[in-house]
Design a protein that fits this description.
single chain, alpha/beta, Rossmann fold, eight-stranded mixed beta sheet, 8 strands, about 35% helix
Length: about 210
């Protein structure tokens, strides 16, 4: 996917998190619920660092120069690169985080295979995404062509992400969900609940059984 929209509108992208602060904080807590509490990890598609920084992740991969520069101001070491070709050795990391990035990659299968490759035995991939079948997901899909950021995006259902992970070899999948209202109706931090099917933002964690 071209990085031009993210290079040209990085500040606008970053401003979304302030404009929708409670939605952002809800998403952050959902990711925190499944992220391994320790170990060496990376956020792939780190963007402006809105998730990596508060979660204590010091390493990110990002193809957009403008987004990477903002992430670096938040204390993240950003490596230029793509999810489909991660610049890390086999079995070198304890976890890989991707937040909404899966809908922007050119080859989701390759991106998940790369996450599997770089993870150590027992390592985890954690993917946060807007469920295509949810209230917000359907709204994003309807308005996709008029969006600077989402016009070329591909939204996934929770079942599709689960299938992608299991076909790659990940096991012991666990899900949490949040955002149970429309974005313009969210007035506080929303709860994080197990499973999927009701919340618009879903986080899934899968474990690599061995190298």
């Amino acid at each position: 996917m071209p990085t031009e929209p993210f290079d040209s509108f990085a500040l606008r992208y970053d401003g979304w998190f302030e404009e929708h602060r409670f939605a952002y904080l809800s998403e952050l807590e959902a990711v925190r619920a499944l992220l391994p509490p320790r170990g060496e990890g990376v956020e792939v598609g780190v963007g402006t660092g809105r998730f990596a920084a508060p979660l204590g992740i010091k390493l990110g991969v990002e193809p957009s120069k403008s987004m990477a520069r903002i992430a670096e101001t938040r204390g993240i070491r950003v490596v230029r690169g793509r999810a489909e070709e991660l610049p890390f050795d086999d079995c070198s990391l304890d976890y890989v985080l991707m937040v909404t990035a899966i809908c922007f990659v050119d080859d989701p299968v390759k991106a998940v295979e790369e996450a599997y490759r770089v993870l150590r035995d027992g390592g985890a991939v954690v993917i946060g995404f807007v469920d295509r079948n949810s209230q917000i997901g359907r709204e994003y899909e309807r308005n996709r062509k008029s969006s600077v950021f989402y016009r070329d995006a591909h939204f996934f259902s929770a079942e599709e992400i689960a299938d992608l992970l299991t076909r790659t070899g990940f096991r012991n999948l666990s899900f949490v969900q949040t955002l149970f209202h429309r974005l313009d109706e969210i007035r506080g931090v929303e709860p994080v609940k197990e499973g999927y099917g009701r919340g618009s933002f879903v986080v899934v964690r899968g474990e690599k059984p061995g190298c």
